[in-house]
Amino acid sequence: MSLLADAKGAAPVGGRLPDGLEWFDIGHSDYTALIDADTAFWSLVRTDEAARVIEDGALVRQWQDKRASFAEEMELLRFNLKPSAVYFNPTERCNLDCAYCYIPRDMRKNGEHMSRETLLDAMERLHAYFSSIMPPDRKPQIIFHGAEPMLNRDAMFEAIAQYGDRFRFGVQTNATLLDEEAIAFLTGHGCGIGLSLDAPVEAVADRSRKRWNGDSVFASTLTAIDRLKGYAGFNVICTMNRENIDQLVPMVEFLHEREVPACMLNFVRCTQPGGRESWVEDAVVSKAYLAALDRTHELFRATGRKLVVANFANILISILAPTARRLMCDISPCGGGRSFFALAPDGTLYPCSEFIGLPDFAGGNLFIDKIEDVLETPPFKLVTGRKVEDIAECAVCPVRHFCGSPCPAEAFEANGGMDKIGAYCDAYLDQAKYAFRLIADGIEADYLWDGWDDGTETTFGFGGC
Ligand code: SF4
Ligand code: SF4
Q1: CATH fold of 82-280+335-365, please?
Q2: By the 8 A CB rule, do 315 and 459 touch?
């Protein structure tokens, strides 16, 4: 794998390093990163100054003074979080048949809705659980997820109306059922809304996302995007796959033109066979993805308006302020089963939605078991115990805490075990290098939400390089 050759190949820059520090070539003309991978400490050093910086010793001394507190911060983030969110699937059914969906086809086509009474019972149980573990001034989050949650709209909306004072809500939807009334309700209740669209061109978008009879959903998604214009709490998920990989630059142009505030460019997960068939090789996905990021920056510079690519912004934040990250795929153990869990319509609890459809990862049932006990079951422990230190390639990777080696479901199903890497390792490495290059150029804020660092503190600032 090119990763280790790249990373370790960078070692000769600038003299002998104390144990724990390593050089990391970020592909920048002037700067190289000095990283303590275990604690996620880094500093950018001018490559032509590298030897002097090490010889001088000031940076190394500051790192050594702070190392224990960096390690403590990472320990807290990696092993001591409690759940604060639930991916709540109120139905097994979906009105679409997307090529890469991780939910089994039969379940999506013929599955059950959660009844109104059951859904409200689930809300009450979740409320009782979260109020026992979270401070009263923090609200846990429920993300209604799919299959297609809007198919069970009435029960879901009743839960949002009844529990709006105790939870924050989000809905991840394919947008086909987002009529004016639904949008007024969701925006009126301050719900986050995530839509899915894979390409700016109907013929391409339809290749991966379509109805059971093959009909297009492109027009209805566009209508929903236009209806949501001006609402800050919405984003569009674009799943990068073999059908749309050449469309990422036009895609971000399209979303930016429609004033979408944020999007996610997600790598298609290879957990299920459909995902594996949609896989794109690392070099190709990486080139297309970084070109799309470049384009969002050009558009920002030209118009003053950002289209934040949220999954990339999270990587930047994981480098700049590890504990301020918002998404939990890029830390190990990942967030599945420890900072959130997933609830299936029959009450089964899984570490993450990505495991729905993998019965071996069912940890228990919300209506029978105590959530505290489910979190300790072997299927959950298998996921929450997966850490980069136990994965041969990742254990020596300089960016292991800015990547997290996603995804355990993918590693287990596609590559044969929790101690294996998932897909896209080289692309994750490229993403981290790109993030460091932006920081070296001082333009990282252009890729982040305004005010992303409100409430975060700088625990280390070194101006010596
Ligand atoms: S890495 Fe995979 S299992 Fe973990 S949170 Fe992300 S999607 Fe879920
Ligand atoms: S998966 Fe991520 S952490 Fe593991 S070797 Fe690849 S880039 Fe590094």
Answers
A1: TIM Barrel (3.20.20)
A2: no
